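Duplicate of #3305? Posting structure anyway:
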């Protein structure tokens, strides 16, 4: 049973964010600014080759150091600087993903076999957190639909339910994180099959650093960052809409759909604009995070205020 220890307070301290960003960019100008930099340096070795994929934005990627040191990964701490310091404890090999439920060919895959299913592509995507910061990242992966097709979903597969690794030996307790574990997320089948939805293994030409969700995560660029579940160990195909972590934690503030929508405010702050990590001026947030041409048709006829 989840003991609510006001996760809201930590997830939503938006006011000190500009202060934090200022401090951070000051620090990043100083060489060897603390343990975070050392951790990400240590991980930076494993290269991952990829061809250029479709759908890339021509916006300038956010500096690697920002993407690898300003994170949400509650299993390793609720502060943005904590995952990069603590996620080194995550053992990413061997790694398996169980794919099960309403499929003809359920299987527990070794990650190495999944990674051979299709050519790895680099896709430069925008990625926006509901907390109103955004990043532009050259992710490496291939469409999630490649893995889905391989297990042959049956007619009963209406949703995909994803689950992260949870190990209480070296991750936060539910009580200290303020959310239930294991972290879970879900997509409707047509969303999961959409060519933009990326099964992601790397970024910036390298394997994912642990704090960004190694060894395998989702990136769903038209949705808030929290849909992009990290360190996935299980995917189950189900008939009913599955539970999702932030919705379980606070259903009034976080819905199942979680599409980036500048016209629907979070109950406690606006969603109309965002701050790109490494920049100071705010940008206007775009409908579906700028991917409306590709994904708006998935939601025609839906009231996006009700299905937020
Ligand atoms: N397992 C797990 N996945 C997670 C989270 C988390 O706490 N645990 N946080 C989510 C949130 S709120 C965001 S904004 C993104 C952040 O991804 P990034 O740190 O790579 O930018 O990861 C998402 N995936
Ligand atoms: Mo987020």
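Output from current build:
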């Amino acid at each position: 049973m989840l003991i609510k220890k006001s996760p809201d307070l930590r997830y939503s301290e938006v006011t000190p964010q500009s202060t934090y960003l200022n401090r951070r960019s000051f620090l990043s100008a100083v060489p060897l600014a603390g343990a975070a930099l050392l951790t990400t340096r240590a991980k930076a070795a494993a290269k991952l080759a990829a061809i250029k994929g479709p759908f890339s934005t021509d916006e300038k990627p956010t500096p690697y150091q920002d993407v690898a040191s300003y994170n949400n990964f509650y299993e390793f701490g609720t502060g943005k600087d904590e995952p990069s310091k603590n996620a080194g404890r995550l053992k990413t090999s061997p790694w398996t993903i169980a794919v099960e439920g309403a499929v003809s060919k359920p299987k527990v895959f070794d990650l190495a076999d999944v990674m051979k299913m299709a050519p790895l592509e680099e896709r430069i995507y925008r990625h926006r957190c509901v907390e109103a910061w955004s990043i532009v990242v050259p992710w490496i992966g291939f469409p999630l639909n490649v893995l889905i097709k391989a297990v042959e979903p049956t007619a009963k597969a209406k949703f995909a339910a994803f689950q992260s690794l949870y190990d209480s030996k070296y991750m936060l307790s539910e009580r200290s994180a303020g959310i239930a574990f294991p972290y879970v997320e879900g997509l409707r089948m047509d969303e999961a099959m959409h060519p933009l939805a990326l099964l992601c293994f790397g970024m910036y030409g390298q394997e994912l650093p642990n704090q960004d969700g190694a060894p395998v995560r989702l990136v769903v660029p038209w949705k808030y960052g929290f849909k992009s579940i990290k360190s996935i160990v299980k995917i189950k195909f189900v008939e009913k809409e599955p539970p999702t972590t932030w919705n379980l934690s606070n259903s009034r503030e976080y819905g199942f759909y979680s599409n980036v929508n500048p016209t629907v405010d979070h109950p406690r702050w606006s969603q109309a604009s965002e701050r790109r990590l490494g920049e100071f001026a705010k940008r206007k947030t775009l409908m579906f995070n700028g991917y409306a041409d590709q994904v708006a048709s998935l939601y025609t006829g839906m009231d996006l205020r009700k299905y937020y």
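Confirmed duplicate; merging threads. The radius of gyration is 18 Å. The CA atoms of residues 7 and 178 lie 5 Å apart.
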